[in-house]
Design goal:
single chain; about 400 residues; alpha/beta; Lyase, Ornithine Decarboxylase, Chain A, domain 1; 8-stranded parallel β-barrel; about 25% strand; disordered N terminus; binds ligand LLP
Length: about 400
């Protein structure tokens, strides 16, 4: 997968002066990624909403909003942050199984483009709150298509056993209910089958399901303005330099060719990881190198509080020593300082001989890195440092 693009060079001198740990964002790569998406969607009835949950850093959000992308949001906090970052409310979608009343009100106040509704009860509550405010809520029904995206069990979302969406077997009833509620404008259908999806097959299966549903609703005379295929496109964590962004051409072509869209129907996507994953690197310093009977540990000043993906999902991120001048290699476990045995970034990792003070890069951390950081152990949140964009 992916596209061979130029290898990023870390501006070591600039990074050396910063307090570690911090996220370093390559804005040039972010802009090249946005360019590529714009190129692949130009002239087609497609809107890409950036899934803010992947990275809510205000600068990153601003760079994306300034390029005309929409925003996919999952909390009132994200709605407020997206407005501040300059995303247009009409280009916002609001997903999530547990939207609270104040969050629904906030979305209605700003007249956001679409609520992605996940249950009958939520639909009724949105109708009730909208009535109280004298408004009409535009909504899409999130359908659970029962498709296994073959990804990590914590990030697969489209099977019947997940908490997400409305079962396809009751969809007709919910569509009828939504059409009958006076303060609801039923705009479309929404699907999202999971995250870090690297095979195209689940998406092809999803296209088949959507085509079948569109045929059925045609027969009933129901037209949807929007079909939202969600996000989930994966990145290549093993080869961040060779494949800094996924193959968007393959991805978008699959939908352009596989979906039988009707006239005046727009296709929505909610991409997070594939937009920002490659451009972020967690930079930290080696505090100590410690040898036990069987192992050598590199102990970093970054821990699972800065990047939880390895501890939570067993995720692999490529690790590099940016400053070692040693030719000799050694095998290390790369760990953080947090008082948890799961605070491990990698086991048996081959690095040039590493010393206290060396600068370590943990790659492909732009998505679900900074946004999932915590202050456990009363640690500070990681900082952020930006390259100067070449074309931004
Ligand atoms: N739309 C909905 C409804 C979602 O739930 C998600 C992600 C997205 C879009 C964006 O998916 P993406 O394009 O980023 O794959 N923390 C996990 C990933 C959780 C994904 C949650 N939902 C990780 O670090 O791998």
């Amino acid at each position: 997968m992916g596209q061979g693009l130029k290898t990023p060079v870390f501006p070591i001198d600039m990074l050396q002066g910063q307090h570690t740990p911090f996220y370093y964002y390559d804005l040039d790569l972010l802009h090249r990624t946005l360019d590529e998406i714009s190129r692949m969607t130009a002239g087609a009835p497609i809107t890409v909403h950036y899934a803010v949950k992947a990275n809510g850093n205000p600068r990153i959000m601003k760079e994306i909003s300034s390029r005309g992308f929409g925003a996919d949001l999952v909390s009132g906090g994200e709605v407020a942050a997206a407005i501040k970052a300059g995303f247009k409310p009409s280009e916002m979608t609001f997903s999530g199984v547990g939207k609270t009343d104040w969050e629904i009100r906030l979305g209605l106040e700003h007249e956001i483009g679409c609520f992605n509704v996940e249950s009958v009860q939520e639909l009724e509550i949105i109708n009730e709150i909208a009535a109280g405010m004298g408004k009409t809520a535009s909504i899409a029904i999130r359908v659970n298509p029962d498709i296994d995206a073959h990804t990590h069990k914590y990030i697969t979302t489209g099977t019947a056993d997940n908490k997400f969406g409305i079962g396809i077997e009751v969809l007709h009833d919910v569509v009828n209910l939504a059409s009958s509620l006076p303060h609801i404008h039923l705009k479309g259908l929404h699907f999202h089958i999971g995250s870090q999806i690297t095979e195209m097959k689940p998406y092809a299966m999803l296209c088949d399901t959507v085509n079948r549903l569109l045929d059925e609703y045609d027969r009933e005379g129901i037209h949807f303005e929007t079909i939202n295929m969600g996000g989930g496109l994966g990145i290549d964590y093993d080869n961040p330099d060779e494949c800094p962004m996924p193959d968007f051409e393959q991805f978008f072509n699959l939908f352009k060719q596989g979906l039988n869209l009707r006239n005046n129907q727009r296709l929505h996507f909610e991409l997070g990881r594939s937009i920002v994953g490659g451009c972020g690197t967690l930079i930290s310093r080696v505090v100590y190198v410690k040898e036990s009977r069987n192992k050598k540990f590199v102990i970093l000043d970054a821990g699972m509080t800065d990047l939880i993906r390895p501890a939570l999902y067993g995720a692999h991120h490529q690790i590099q020593n940016l400053t070692s001048s040693q030719e000799e290699m050694a095998t290390y476990d790369i760990v953080g300082p947090v008082c948890e045995s799961s605070d491990v970034f990698a086991s048996d990792c081959r690095l040039p001989v590493t010393r206290r003070g060396d600068m370590i890069a943990i790659r492909s951390a732009g998505a679900y890195g900074e946004s999932m950081a915590s202050t456990y152990n009363m640690r500070s949140l990681p900082g952020s440092v930006f390259s100067t964009p070449a074309n931004g």
